[in-house]
Amino acid sequence: MLADKMFRTLLSREVLRFARVWTQTIIPPLLTSLLYVVVFGVALGSRIREIEGVPYLQFILPGIALMSLITGAYMNTSTSVFDAKRERYIDDVLISPMSNIQIALAYTLGGTLRGLIVGTGVFLVGMPFAGVTVDRPILLLLIGVTVSFTFSAIGTVVGVVSSRIDHVTFMTNVVIQPLAFLGGVFYSVDMLPAGLRTATLFNPIFHTVDAARFATLSVSDLNPYPALAVVALLAVLSFCGAWWSIARGPNLRH
Hints:
Layout: H1 2-19, H2 22-25, H3 27-45, E1 50-51, E2 54-55, H4 56-87, H5 90-94, H6 100-130, H7 137-161, H8 165-181, H9 194-200, H10 204-217, H11 224-248
Antiparallel strand pairs: 1-2
């Protein structure tokens, strides 16, 4: 079918979009995350020996990789959709035979792949430093795919509703990054006062970090299975949002 062929074409375009400029889209987040590993893991690791019986550098590595994965997935779709809307070549996509769900899925899958590449790269680069082995590799891969898909879909929504590029970066700098730093990446929530511990439970990124840490180290602040359910629910809700934004999003159609 023509719609399926155009879906594959749009997906290929989204992949080529970041692959052709890999020195800007892949290498910088790898280097930034490596600095996190060195600064927080090596420097603080000499002070904080273990958390829950796990060496500190091993404890923080899954969260650092997930931070890079989230940022890469979100930035790919948010900037791609925003640029397409600003330059009005989104019109060619919208009038194509593709359905709204196919358009949303193509953008979201492109961002998902970039997020996975960045997150996997960070994890592989950090493994020799941390000396970590993965207890449940299939589960970790499933979590990585789901989280990357989730934030790629969120990026699609933001790209549609944003009227200025400032709105795209605002979401990164004021929402995603603070939630990531407050999501238990560098500490266990058991180390927090009761009030902050309760507030952390409402941070969606905390549940993704906790699930990834469980898959990697078999260590979890919560029962891991409700956390996995939260991750799956976030993926469903975020893609529904991406689908809605393509179908009815503001400033997308004249």
